[in-house]
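Troubleshooting: if your tokenizer reports a length mismatch, compare against these two reference records.
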Amino acid sequence: MSTETLVNRARIICEQNGARFTAIREKVFRLLADLNGGIGAYELLEQLKQTEPGAKPATVYRALEFLTEQGFIHKIESSNAFLLCHHFGHHHPAQLLICDQCGNVTELHAHILHDEFNRQAVLQGFTIQQQTIEAHGLCKSCKLQ
């Protein structure tokens, strides 16, 4: 899906949610949309400074917080990085396949995994409020090298 299509979808969702998709938030969104993997906040800041020289860490962190709240991005906890969710529009569990060699991240939506994980949690008396499962390894391209 093109970056423009993603941006337009994000604008519509923000309007529906009564949220402001400011210029800075859109720029951070676009930076994430152009990546195949995750990126850290400070790396995003350096890229953002190319068009917004006065940008500070708080600028990026506020944008990332907003994008997370709207369900547009996932946080990769193991690497403290962020990834655009191409299936945004609703909050959902995700399973992430993270290539340790090239950094590519593939988002999966295996409902059977989600359902079993929730079932096991309920058996333990645990309520899951947010779920992202991360798996590290090598992608198909890197295995062939």
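Reference record two:
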Amino acid sequence: MRTELQKMLAGESYEAWDTELTTMRVKARQLLHEYNQLIAAPKEARAAVLYQLLGTASNADIQPPFYCDYGVHIKAGDNLFMNFNCVVLDCALVTIGNNVQMGPAVQIYAAFHPLVAAERIKGPELAGPITIGDNVWIGGGAIICPNVTIGSNTTIGAGSVVTRDIPANVFAAGNPCRVIKTIQ
């Protein structure tokens, strides 16, 4: 029998109010509360708490306030920068490459719900992985939806809603986000 955590990470329907998942979210909320209180603290002090939350955070600079569901499902590469008010719903693996920068209020949503109302009101949730390549810039207020890959060296315009894969080496923007031009 699979646990709700195993189902969640496998992209299957799962019960978010499972005891194990709830315990994991509470632990993350406690660390986030501590982290977000360090808004004026030196980067080193924030890094110690961030490491407890993410498990990996090589030279990450995430400006408080920052919010996530679990933290442990965020795999961040070197030199990550996230500006104020970023949110990562990491119910599935969220992989962020090296040298990624995000403007304020970027939202990364691995979580989603059934489209059919009769199924949705029963309470199950779903999650899909998100992958962001190396050297990506994501403009402020952009939303990255589940089951999306953004290729390396790409720029996502501010306010974009990324609902499908975006290739490497492009500038993409809009709602829904689409490729505007190739970057040489």
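Descriptive notes for reference record two:
- The mean pLDDT is 95.
- Residues 4-179 form a domain with the UDP N-Acetylglucosamine Acyltransferase; domain 1 fold (CATH 2.160.10.10).
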